[in-house]
Structure formats: C-alpha cells, structure tokens
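Changelog-linked ticket: pyridoxal-5'-phosphate example.
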Amino acid sequence: MISHKELFLLNNAQTSTSPNFLEIERAEGLYLYDKEGKSYMDLVSGFAVSNIGHRHPRVLDAIMGQLDKYLHLTVYGEFVQSPMVLFAQKLISVLPEELNNVYFVNSGTEATEGALKLAKRYTGRTGIVACYNSYHGSTHGALSVMGNEDYKQKYRPLLPDVSFMHFGLEEDLELITTSTACVIVETVQGEAGIRVPSAAYMQKLRAKCTETGTLLILDEIQAAFGRTGKLFAFENYGIVPDILLLAKALGGGMPIGAFVANREVMGVLKENPILGHITTFGGHPISSVAGLASLNVIIDENLVEPVNEKGRLFRELLVHPLIREVRGAGLMMCIQLDSFEQVEKVSKLCAADGVVIDWFLHCETALRVAPPLIITEEEIRIACKVILKALDAIN
Ligand SMILES: Cc1ncc(COP(=O)(O)O)c(C=O)c1O
C-alpha cells in the first residue's frame, strides 16, 4: 500500500525539497505524538501558534459549543455574529484605548494586506517603509514589504513606492517622510533570527511616524499573546501602534488573523466606495470562539508572567562551545550557531530524541526555540539536555 509519506509527496504541493516529514497523529499540551506513540516536545509551537499548548480543553469546549449553533453564515461584516462580537470586545479590553476597532481576517498575510490598504486609504499617500529581513506574509502585498530580495525577484512587479530601512538603525528613520503612508515593522523580528530592538529605537520610530503623519503598523503576528513576556510585545517599549497585526496564536490553534486600529481610522473602509476590504470567512465563528477561549486561558491561567523567567532558564542552561549566542525576548528565542549544516544536524538529532526544533526563513544558522508558554521548568531542563547532547554529538 502506498504510504502517507509517498502520497504527501505526490499529491500535496510542496514548499521545499526537504520537508520535515514527521507524521504526527495526535497533539496535547506541549507534546506531539507520532503513529508509533513516540512523543515529541514541541519547541516551535507550530510556528508561534500554540502559545497555550495543543488542544487546550477550554478551546475544545468552546469549539464544541459553537458546533451546535452554526458554522459559516455569511461574509464578514453583515450579520451580527456573537463569536466575533465577543472576541473583538475581549481583545479591545486588553489593548490600549486607541486600538478599539478589530477587522478579522483569516491569516497573518491577510492582516498585512488589510493594514497596508487601510494606511494608504486613510492617509491618501502611497509610500511604504519596511525593514530589511522582515517577513509579513506571502501574498503579493506582503511580499512587497518583505526585506529579502531572494524571495521577491521572481515575482515582480510588486507594489511600487516601498523603501527599506535597517531594523534598529536610527539614521534610517529619515526614510519616513510626509509622503509615507505607513511604516510596517515587526515589534520583534522573527524570521530574521529573533532581533529585539531597543526601547529608544522603538520610541524614536513612533515619534517619527507621529511627526510625519505616518501610520505605524506593528506586526505582532509572531510576537503577541505573551511570547515576549508581555501580552503584546509593544508593551515592552511604552509605545502604541496605529495598526496592530495579529494572527497565529490569536486563534488558539484555529486559523484567524486581525488588524486592529482606531475606529476613526478603520472607518474609511466602509464608504466611498463601500466594501473597501472584504472577506468571506474572516472571523469564522469557530475560530472566533477558539480565539476568545485561548485569550481567556492566557489571562486566567496567568501564562504571561512567568515567561521571562522561563526564557532566562533556557539561556542559563544553553551554554556550549558551539553556541555563539542565545537571543530573544521571553520565549521567542534562538540559538545562534555557525552554519546551516550544524543547524540541520542538531534539528535531526533533537527530533530523534523527541524534541522538535527548527530554524528561520532569513537566518538558517540559528535554531528556533519558541515553546508553548505552558512549558514547565522540568521540561525546559529536559529539552536543553537534548539540545546540548545533539551539539556534543556534532562537535
Ligand atoms: C511576523 C509575521 N508576519 C506575518 C506572517 C504571515 O502569517 P500567515 O502565515 O498566517 O499568513 C508570519 C508568518 O510566519 C509572521 O511570522
């Protein structure tokens, strides 16, 4: 009989020539289980999605409850659907008062698209400033603001009037002018290999945007919901964006994204012409109830407060001659090695020993460490032992 691995290679479009190939049958909390019942600690969280762990009972209950009511009813923005009404209300209650209007979409890249459109529409300007080594999604608009030419060159023409600055470099803020509609920046750069900016830089960036009437879009698709030690990463810097991008952990394991702005800004999408941005499935009822349950879990179970301490424990334990640096904020971390060859070997050895670890789109020489926030001290010690053993093996 043809195996699922063969079918996967044959029938499912591939994104690379070297997929991971783990065949997971079940997931629970921090752990993934394969067909043979072998368990794996998930140190990647499905790429910053499973902040509360896999299949949290309160998320499952919320989904079950909604299954008895309705699935899809109509396009976004027409019927009053309580799942997305209550989810938006909760999100707004934990955000600064300026961010009081939520547009739900289906994914991160759609949140990026919506935000870029909103900024152009609201300001009447066309200029966009983004950062080198950024990642905001894979659709054409998001690709246009991606700071890596290798991924873009084959897809041109892309959006015009986009310029790039070096993340964290104050001199480059000069690129932001009164012709700039928006600056789009990851609060902590993820795919660049976890680059944490200084508070001084972020405050100057905010000030420059305010001074020029430019909207500041902070992409927290990877960094929000406790990952950096605060519910939202911008809280680390004492600033508030004009538009906030959310996805990944937003849905507690279900697909959903959002761009959040002030009601007055968001209002431009509804007239002249109407339907300035539309989506069929945005804020799907199942995703919305799952997302609301997940946010409640993060708050009720106090998952954010211990994040920095857990991150510190990782750093304390991850000491090895091959490790150049352990970078990051909270549980959004990376282990910097010297080569992709080392990264690949360590990842394979870790997987064989029951720990899933990965690398980054724009930084293949560093290992990604971003476990669910529920990881315990004991589990951190076990995970680090496995990583150190793998590093010993290739040394
Ligand atoms: C910072 C950031 N923005 C946007 C995206 C795109 O999200 P999605 O894959 O849901 O389109 C990602 C995905 O990795 C991301 O890390």
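Closing comment: Example verified and attached. The longest strand covers residues 180-186. The mean pLDDT is 97.
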